[in-house]
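Review box. Two proteins, two foldings.
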Amino acid sequence: MPIPTFQAYRLHAGPDGAPPEGRFDTLQENDLSPGDTLIRVAYAGLNYKDALAQAGRGNVIRDYPRIGGIDLSGTVVHSADPTLAPGQQVVVHGFGIGVDCDGGYAQYARVPHDWVLPLPDGINLRDAAVLGAAGYTAALSLHWMEHCGLTPEQGDVLITGATGGVAGIAIDIFSQRGYRVCAMSGKPDAAAYLRSLGAADVIAPPDLSGPVKPLMSARWAGVVDSVGGPLLAHALATLRPDGVAAAFGNAGGADLPTSVIPFILRGVKLLGINANSPMPLRRALWQRLATDYRPTRLDLAARVIAPEDLPRALAAMLERGSTGRSVVRFS
């Protein structure tokens, strides 16, 4: 049975190279990108990549019009995969949704069935969206850092860009696993919030006006970095011997002004975290997000907004006017 018309927040190409224009359109199912599984969207997350796309920055979206939203949670309407029954609660993130194909900022989304991950027991639709790509990235960082030998006994873990969505969930997850977490933030008024998530210490970013030394006083057993650029270079220079850093963002720049010295003299490890990982690993880590990686402070790190507030909330992310993780509720 055809679904009724529905609302979607869709980006349209701006005139003469101007930034894209976002507006709510009334669509039908066949207006969506191809796919054999239709999902009624419950919630969709707000991510830095979504904010860049709305602003037309970073060449995130190349083909318009496009429904944004790189992650979503919802219920299956129908699917070509018999294991995805109508009404089943699912989450989708990555695979190019919201960028190369239509994403979660709509009442309905259509995707290939092998992009759809049934929610594990213990995670509801709201929490799945709060976690979304951000929570998965935090879990993936912890997974690979522990794979490289990180343990709580080795020392403190630094989490940069601490008021961001990924970082807030990472503070929660790492502290629950027994790590002593130090949150780094340039927002002095966020200290109480970061401590409420589980941070033992809160520090300001270092002065990066001059060149970054290749080695400095060794302080951290691990670093979870969403900033990149000179700040990541500074963090690498302050890792303890055999320390490990996980990098997944470039809000502070894509260049990395460092040298091989931290790697060959201290044996530090730099892990690139790409959340668009294979489905078997996704299933395993979402199961861990429901069990031993489960955050316990999601309510502190998240807020739910209405669809009409979506454009303004995305713009605030680029102006450093947001804290934690926001999700938009569609149904």
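Next protein.
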Amino acid sequence: MMNDHAAAFADKVAIVTGASSGVGRAYALALAEAGATVVASARSVGDRTARDARRGTLAEVVLAAERMPGHIIALACDVTVESDIVRLIAQTVANCGRIDILVNNAGAYPSYDSLAIDQSAWDALISLNLRSAYVAIREAAPQMIAQQGGSIVNITAGASGAFPGTNGAHEGMLLYGVTKAALNRLTTFLADELKPHGIAVNALSPGVVRTDIWESLASAERVAAMSGKPATPEILGPALLYLAAQTADGMTGQIVHTDRFGHEWP
């Protein structure tokens, strides 16, 4: 199914943050399978020479894409460090000449007592889940404006309250939900502002996904009861690829859910 998109993405350059594992890994591989050149970032690259590169590293993601129509370039970037994001965008333009797609996926979902969140926890998650996306857009948008086109996809969540019927309120997820709700507003605001330049800005919720990180954090009972989808390009990729192909002439300013792709949207 991914190869159906290869012609459309063969000359595209994409950036995916938080791409070493889970949802981000699936998105990076989906774009590479569709023919794109993908700059995949995470805090560290891992051992580039090991043929058995450890799962959960960018080195492993690069190896996983070796026989795909596109390819993956690994760049280390801590998205909580503004200079790292600036460097990521600048190096992508310098090495690839353009940026067509930006997927702001990096983030975390720690659990806190709703009435006991201290300032350091609050500031840290805002920096990771929200401000990093803004800085990446701020740095990438001028290149997209010069090209008069591009697609930005911010990865949101049901905890943002955007999707009725998805049980968006979860115990301990107040701060996480606030960051994702703010990310949704960042999406709709910038969709309007960047539309005259041909740039689409949308937010995509992957829904409940069985990632390695989720399973390591969840209790055995929750893992056993979980009915979420696996974090694979085949499952998560189609909705992301649809949004990645958009410009302002198509779908923009939308907050959408992967589980409803092909039913309620596009």
